[in-house]
């Protein structure tokens, strides 16, 4: 019965203590949340802890959900807080990075370098990105969220999401192996 | 169309509400096509990274369940466990009423009692000191209504309202519960206020017992009604804020710092009379009627 329900309907049932609805909600989102947490933390074990804490918080706080955001963005927001708690101070996404990296909406050599680089090189570069950049890419391209949804999860204005995405791509291009970047120039 | 550069990440992710114009532009613009291709590369790499993450093991969900069960035995966790509300309330009307009131007593959190009674005791002590100057009625009129308004806000608009538990345990409607709580809080504050008045009365022969009691009961009625209505219908901080504002205006009016017309209105509201009592009763009745119907109300959420 719970299979066809929306996330919101499931969450309302969870608020009343429905364990089946809770399991259903977990089945729908756990994998994406775990991938997001692992992307942020870079390790499996703390990401699993963050996922556990997320769903314990969902069980306890389901009746506090006010419906101002979508259930999915709310879940990612809770998961994000849990993941950040497990990060060491210097790894935490700092909003100041946005200011340092001014957005470059014009297509440039970086874009060309990325287009020419092979997937394995880009994947390697992705691993070196700062959490701030990795997570915005994850939310946009792995979780498939709109910019408005990402803005809600991160608690920033939608304009910041846009500039952060461009900055993340620029950082990705900079992190490519030198010969690839030079080949693109 | 100018270059839709900012839309290209969303276009690559497939989340644009209307991708058709972007698609048309990209087809005719080499620059944007290259951009889109780059975003597509980023998308595929990021998506592949996420897809390569192993799905959570079944043991993970079992662990979540285990931790929930370990910390909260029983069905659903409650932020504040409701103390001993089970059991028979009683059948006869007076016994039922008494049962309801005593159960409210256990549900109203202790800071509410401590803060309001401490305010009353302090107010009584100050009134006793200034009684030689004939100022005791003013002090009581300032302290007791404020204590009542704060207690009403704290008890009737508590953020973690366990009304659901109450209703589950008794065949009592949430409105009755709310009214019982208001009655209990005001009853206790008024009784304590009367006690303080009795102690002070011999020191204040001019005003006398009835004069002293009237001095604080007058403002207590509108302040409590206002605090009750706003705390239940909106939130306790708003109830307290409005009651404090009225209280402050009254103080300013008695010191002559407001203009005369305003002072006359405030005095009218704060003097016990049929009009004020009826107005307060109507405000309380409307609040009690509306309380379970609030769309975002705590009472409603607890019941639904």
Note down, in words, how this protein is organized.
The complex is a heterodimer of chains A (185) and B (304). Chain A has 185 residues and is mainly α. Chain A has 2 domains: 2-90, RNA polymerase sigma factor, region 2, helix turn helix motif (Rna Polymerase Sigma Factor, Chain: A); 93-184, Winged helix-like DNA-binding domain superfamily/Winged helix DNA-binding domain (Arc Repressor Mutant, subunit A, Orthogonal Bundle), CATH 1.10.10.10. Helix content of chain A is 71%, strand content 0%. Chain A has helices at residues 7-15, 19-41, 44-61, 71-85, 96-100, 109-116, 119-127, 131-142, 147-154, 158-174, 178-184. In chain A, helix 2 runs antiparallel to helix 3 (44-61). The longest helix of chain A is centred in the N-terminal third of the chain and has 23 residues, at 19-41. The relative contact order of chain A is 0.13. The model of chain B is unreliable at 75-88, 162-169 and 296-304 (pLDDT under 50).
List the helices and strands and how they pair.
The complex is a heterodimer of chains A (185) and B (304).
Chain A: H1 7-15, H2 19-41, H3 44-61, H4 71-85, H5 96-100, H6 109-116, H7 119-127, H8 131-142, H9 147-154, H10 158-174, H11 178-184
Chain B: H1 8-13, H2 20-28, H3 30-52, H4 58-71, H5 93-107, H6 110-130, H7 136-156, H8 163-169, H9 174-200, H10 208-233, H11 236-255, H12 260-270, H13 274-290, H14 298-303
């Amino acid at each position: 019965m719970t299979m066809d329900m929306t996330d919101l309907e499931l969450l309302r049932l969870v608020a009343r203590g429905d364990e089946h609805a809770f399991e259903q909600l977990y089945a729908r989102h756990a994998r994406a949340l775990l991938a997001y947490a692992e992307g942020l933390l870079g390790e499996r074990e703390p990401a699993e802890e963050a996922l556990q804490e997320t769903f314990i918080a969902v069980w306890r706080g389901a009746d506090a959900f006010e419906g101002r955001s979508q259930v999915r963005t709310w879940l990612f927001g809770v998961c994000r807080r849990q993941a950040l708690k497990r990060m060491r101070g210097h790894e935490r996404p700092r909003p100041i990075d946005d200011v340092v990296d001014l957005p470059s909406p014009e297509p440039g050599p970086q874009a060309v370098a990325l287009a020419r680089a092979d997937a394995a090189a880009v994947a390697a570069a992705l691993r070196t990105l700062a959490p701030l950049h990795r997570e915005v890419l994850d939310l946009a391209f792995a979780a498939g969220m709109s910019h408005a949804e990402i803005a809600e999860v991160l608690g920033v204005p939608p304009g910041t999401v846009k500039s952060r995405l461009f900055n993340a791509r620029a950082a990705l291009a900079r992190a490519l192996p030198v010969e690839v970047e030079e080949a693109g120039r | 169309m100018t270059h839709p550069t900012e839309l290209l990440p969303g276009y690559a992710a497939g989340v644009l509400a209307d991708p058709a114009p972007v698609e048309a532009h990209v087809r005719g613009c080499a620059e944007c096509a290259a951009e889109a291709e780059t975003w597509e590369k980023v998308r595929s790499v990021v998506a592949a990274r996420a897809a390569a993450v192993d799905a959570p093991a079944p043991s993970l969900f079992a662990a979540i369940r285990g931790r929930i069960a370990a910390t909260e035995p029983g069905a659903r966790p409650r932020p504040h466990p409701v103390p001993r509300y089970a059991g028979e309330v009683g059948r006869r009307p007076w016994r039922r009423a008494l049962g309801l009131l005593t159960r409210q007593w256990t549900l109203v959190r202790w800071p509410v009692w401590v803060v309001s009674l401490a305010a009353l005791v302090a107010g009584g002590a100050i009134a006793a000191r200034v009684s030689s100057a004939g100022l005791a009625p003013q002090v009581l009129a300032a302290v007791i209504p404020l204590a009542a308004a704060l207690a009403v806000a704290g008890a009737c608009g508590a953020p973690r309202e366990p009304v659901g538990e109450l209703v589950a345990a008794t065949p009592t409607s949430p409105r009755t519960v709310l009214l019982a709580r208001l009655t209990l809080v005001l009853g206790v504050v008024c009784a304590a206020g009367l006690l303080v008045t009795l102690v002070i009365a011999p020191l204040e022969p001019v005003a006398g017992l009835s004069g002293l009691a009237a001095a604080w009961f007058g403002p207590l009625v509108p302040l409590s009604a206002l605090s009750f209505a706003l705390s239940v219908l909106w939130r306790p901080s708003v109830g307290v804020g409005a009651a404090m504002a009225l209280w402050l205006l009254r103080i300013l009016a008695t010191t002559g710092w407001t203009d005369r017309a305003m002072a006359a209105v405030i005095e009218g509201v704060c003097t016990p009379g049929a009009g004020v009592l009826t107005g307060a009763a109507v405000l309380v009745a409307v609040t009690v009627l509306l309380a379970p119907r609030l769309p975002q109300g705590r009472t409603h959420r607890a019941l639904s």
